[in-house]
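Trying the structure run again after the queue cleared.
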Amino acid sequence: MKRIITALIIVLVLAGCSSGKPVQGDIQNTRFVFEYNGVEIPVNTDAAPVIEALGEPLDYFEAESCAFQGLDKTYYYSGFELTTYPKDDDTDYISTIYFQDDSVSTPEGICIGSSAEDVIKAYGEDYTGGEGSYVYTLGDSTLTFVTENDVVVSITYQAIVDGMK
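Done. Tokens:
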């Protein structure tokens, strides 16, 4: 009995030493993650550290949020735009990452101009969507590829958030 209590105490002490923050592997297993210049950008996470790590955006736009109290903010970077939404705790969270051109790609190598076949090879056949649309869901995020004539013309990472479509 003494050994069980000692083991339990050790487990509790070690659990208390944990930062409680997910490591990279945890994030990638629970949602889609875009990476740009070594900066990991998962949706549905605090935007402030990501925006700081990305540096000065090329442009910035904000507007009153239709779904939440506060401002939706859009940051424009080379090849993509990142949009945030406000939450009740006055923190902005990443809602979408939209590819603007073929200068950026997903970690699996898919970019605007890739083939629909490349998308399926990289992400599999477990998708929803209509003709020319491939929507993959992982945890609280979606990754959407839109194609025309079997060529990717749009890529969007999207947070799944109550009250937002």
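The longest helix spans residues 2-17. Worth checking whether this holds up in the mutant runs.
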